[in-house]
Amino acid sequence: MEKQEEEVQQQQQQQQQQQQPDKNNKETITWDVAEYGGYLFDKKLKAHNPLNHQMPLQYHHSQSTPHIPSSLSTSSTTSIKKPSSSLSDDESGGSSSSTPHSSNTPRKQFSFDDHCALILANQKLPKKLVDYFWDKCSVRICADGGANRLYSLGTKINQSSRWIPDYIKGDLDSLHEGVSDFFSKKGSSIVLDSSQDTSDLQKCFELIIDLEKGSGIKYRKIFILGGLGGSFSHEFANVNTLFDHPGRKIILASKDNLAWLLSSTYNHNIICRSETKCSLIPLSSKASQVTTSGLKWNLVKQSLNFGELISTSNVSLDNKVCVETSNPLIFIVDINP
């Protein structure tokens, strides 16, 4: 009798275990270093292959950039300077419509299911990365002084009208008046948000959320050029933004590095080429268990923590790196070694 009871209990335990979800059975997210412009600066790769192993971001034509919701204009902390309707087509860069636009050519955007956005921060902007992402994002936003950087980049090559952002947003304490007037006449919307409780980058994300509400579009992939480098405090503020929006793919980019957040909610596959230098940084908290494959120095249920071990200057051995983590990690790629 006791043996039968034990067998019944074992069967019940097995059934309960089968009914419980597998905690390790996480959805896998794929990240692509080449897609994010990771090898644009690789001189050796250029010499080896004229195609540069750079997978072009696919895009298609669309009608226009989404209008900014009218609710923003009534905000106590936000005001919008719209382009003048009296401008000629030549002065405004196209038709006299109030919809922001940057050229007479049809707007291009990602052919992925979710649209992509480009934010330009107030740091040095590599021309190669600006060129690479510009026509491939469905909306382009300058974070305050990022407009000065974009204008300077255009005038440096005697093409000041080459890149016209759809929006410029921030407290506008860094935006030069001449730059503001120039872009406004060319069709950019200037959005003032005087709040000192959020950074200019956070203000740009608030704008993206408002654009989503007004259009039904979801910008799950956002590229931030100038998001790394420069002021160390600003760099930390930019990295903190990754944790504010864990449901989106947000890529911080500079001429030296790419960085993004590996959430503990998912497993992660990073598509890359061999000998790509990378690091895994437990910035927000201790990562008690990290397991990787595809690296020269793999981790097996390894704890990563500041003051203890962190994984820096690791190297990929093949074209894919897999990461499982119990806590969020910042994944950093050296793109200009």
From TrEMBL:
Regions of compositional bias (Low complexity) in chain numbering: 9-20, 64-103
Domain Thiamin pyrophosphokinase thiamin-binding as annotated: residue spans: 247-329
Keyword field contains Transmembrane: no
Record InterPro entries: Thi_PPkinase (IPR006282), Thiamin_PyroPKinase_B1-bd (IPR007373), TPK_B1-bd_sf (IPR036371), TPK_catalytic (IPR007371), TPK_catalytic_sf (IPR036759)
Residue span of region Disordered: 1-29, 60-107
Key words of the record: ATP-binding, Kinase, Nucleotide-binding, Transferase
GO molecular function, one term: thiamine diphosphokinase activity
Any one biological process term the GO annotation gives: thiamine metabolic process
A cellular component term, taken from the record's GO annotations: extracellular matrix
This protein's name: Thiamin pyrophosphokinase thiamin-binding domain-containing protein
Species per Swiss-Prot/TrEMBL record: Dictyostelium discoideum
Taxon lineage: Eukaryota, Amoebozoa, Evosea, Eumycetozoa, Dictyostelia
